[in-house]
Every structure is written in C-alpha cells, then in structure tokens.
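Dear colleague,

Thank you for sharing your sequence with our group. We've completed the structure prediction you requested, and as agreed, I am returning the results in plain text so they can be pasted directly into your records. Please verify that the sequence below matches your submission; if there's any discrepancy, let me know and we will rerun it promptly.
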Amino acid sequence: MAEEKTTVEDIDRSLYDFKDSEEGFYKVNEGLTPEIVEQISKEKNDPDWMRQFRLESLEVYNSLKVPDWGPDITDLNMDDIVTYVRPNTGMSAKWSEVPEDIKNTFERLGIPEAERKSLAGVGAQYDSELVYHNVKEEVLEQGVIYTDMESALRDNEEKVRTHFMKLVPPTDHKFAALHGAVWSGGSFVYVPPGVKVEIPLQSYFRLNAPGAGQFEHTLIIVDEGADLHFIEGCSAPKYNVNNLHAGCVELFVGKNAHLRYSTIENWSKNMYNLNTKRAICEEGAVIEWVSGSFGSHVSYLYPMSILKGDSSRAEFTGITFAGKGQNLDTGAKIVHSGKNTRSVISTKSISKDGGISTYRSAIVVQESAKAAKSTVSCQSLMLDDISRSDTVPAMDIRTNDADIGHEAKIGRISDDAVFYLMSRGVSEEEARAMIVSGFADPVSKELPLEYAVEMNNLIQLEMKGAIG
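Please find the predicted structure tokens below.
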C-alpha cells in the first residue's frame, strides 16, 4: 500500500526568490540614529521642513512602545535593519535605460508586459528608490500627475506638504513614526476634478537587499468627481535574516470621487510587514479596497476608511493565506462620521500547515453618523488540525440610528465535498485546491486580470501536495 501523503509542501517561490548582486549599491549603516536619519535626508535632498519632520518622527519613535496586542515581533531588531539602500542607478522613464539586472527582475515579475498590455502608468521601486517611471501621454494630457514622491516633493511641494502624513501622523503608532523618519520612494498621484482615468495606474515594490527595510510612501489625491483605479504589487526574495516593510498609504477621495485601490502582497517568509493604509472620503465619495495578503512572517495590516462626508461609502474585500511559520493579523477599520454613510467588509482567510490567520476589525459609528449602515462578513477556512484562525471584531456604535450587521464563519474543508469531486474523477489534491480557489473566488474576481491570475497561481502553489 502506498504511503499516505500527510504533509503540505512549502510554496515554490522560484518566481520571486531570485536575488541580485548589490555591487555598487549605496547603503546607510544598520540601526536608527539621528545621524542616519540626517544622512537619508541629505541623500534625498529634502527641503528643511522635511528634514525636521524626519528628526521629530524619530523622537516620537523612540518615545513609543512596540505594539503588544498582535503577533509577537520581539525578534525584529532595528539595530540589524538597514533603513536605506539605493541601487546603482537613477530613475528612468525609458525601460531600455534601466540596468540589466534590475530590468531582468521586473521582466521576470511581468511588469513591462503588464504595462504594455493594460496599464496607464507604472512606477517600479527597487529597494529604497524608484528605478523606472512612465505614464502614457493621454493620461498626462488629462492633467493627471503620477510621479515618484521625491519628484513630487520637488515639483508639487505645497500639495505634498499639505497632505503628507496628515491621515497617518507619526504619533499614530511606533512604526508610523519609524516611517516618518526614514521613508523613501513611493508614488504621488493627483487626479484633477472630473477626470476619469480609464485604465489603471500601477506601482510595484521589490525589496532585494537582505536585512533591509522598505519604507515607501504612497500619496493619492482624487479630486471632486474624479475616478481612478490604482494597483500595488509587492514581493521579495527569501533570506535567513529579517526584513522589514513599514510603508504608508494615504488616500484622499474628494466629493463624489471614486478610488479603487488593489493590492497583492507576496512578501517572503522572513518579512515583517507592518504597513499602514488609510483613506478619507468627502461627501458622496467612494473608496474600494481589494487586498490579497500571501507573504511575510508576521503581518499587521488593517486598511482604514474615514467616511467623513455625508453619503460616502467604503468597501473592503480581502483574502489572507497563512502557511507554515506565518502569523498574519489582518482586517479593516471603518469610521462613520457623515450621515447616510455605508460600508461593507468581506474577508476570507485560509490557514494551513500550522499557519495563524487573525481577522481584526473595528467599526466606529460616531454620534453624527445618522442612518449609517455597515455589514461585516468574515469567513475562515482551516486546511488541517494544526492551523489556527481567530476573529476579533470590534463595534463602537454611538448612535441608535444605525444598521450594523456582523457575520463570521470558521470551518474546515468538507470531506463530503472532497469525496464528491473525487467520485467525478478529480484527485484529492486537485479537489482541495478547487475548493480553496472557489472559496477565494469573490476576491479574485474583483482583481485586474493579471493580478487575479497571480493570486490563483499563488493559491495553487500553496496547495501543492496538500492532503490535509
């Protein structure tokens, strides 16, 4: 009798795990000191106010405690993290001018191909700097600004200064303060009133250096009546030392404007992903988040929507897949301030091989939010009896004039469903993968095609060899 297969193979990450030489790269020393922050600021040619902002953020960082309510991050030692790594190239708008090794990295990840096929503009960040940025002429002719944060700081300083870390102040938590001190790279987008960007803009963040951090800042302003879909992708090769990602995303959605923000994060299993994302919606505005979280050793990730204006809306659709050695603490937060505001949260988490998925959310309905309505649905699927899934929802309702609903389901793959598929000639491995893909389908269908394909491939790879 053949030996029964009871283990789950780790994901084949060959697409993401290639590493490039760092010869000729510029790095600051490991650790976090005022001297290092000053050095980064000098490298970036910051204006005086930004240099001061960085130093004040460092003081806030040193005064705050590490969060103690989520997964354990005591193994993350900032003394071992390099906070700034500059590749041996400047930024180019021509793909042909990007150095060959860096170009090969993004070619293998499918970035230029995606740009040619379906994107209005692309920014590609490698370690701490954008190395490539290009926007289609017809988008520029609409008055859209899409550039790297350093160029925005130089060419649109007033817009940046008015909005930078106003939604996510350094005092918010220790890693927001860290971001304020050492941020580098990222994207700036401004869509003028009434402009509808028909095809998506995309930024892709690749962390190559071992023992390094990536701290990109994304700032998007969608003005009154405008419409934008922005896509963010992330990956990193696996090393035997810790890496850190503490980026920040700030989204300003104007009156009657619409923004969809899609992300697939596929960090490696040595990454601490401590990212902060936040949006604020004016009257009649709509923010849609679509989020897939597959990589990292530990994640703290809870995109937040502030429904400030009357009749504004937020939708969050997310999926998390936690495998061996992963503790992914994810969810969403929505604050209802305006009247007749609406929000929908729909999340799914999958855990296997001892992985831990925690769904953590907060719905806050302020006294001013009359006739607010919110629906929360979280579903968890465990693929074996050594994995774990937890749900930690919080509801803070300060008015009687609100309609709030919450639904949570936690379960395992049904043996009956597997048996049914096997009786139709499907192998057990394929049957389980089909069930998991079906479970994830509501998220997959919300993603742009190339990202839906990537997400489905990641699920298939994670499920490879899985019997339960």
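Summary note from our side: The longest helix spans residues 428-444.

Kind regards,
the structure core
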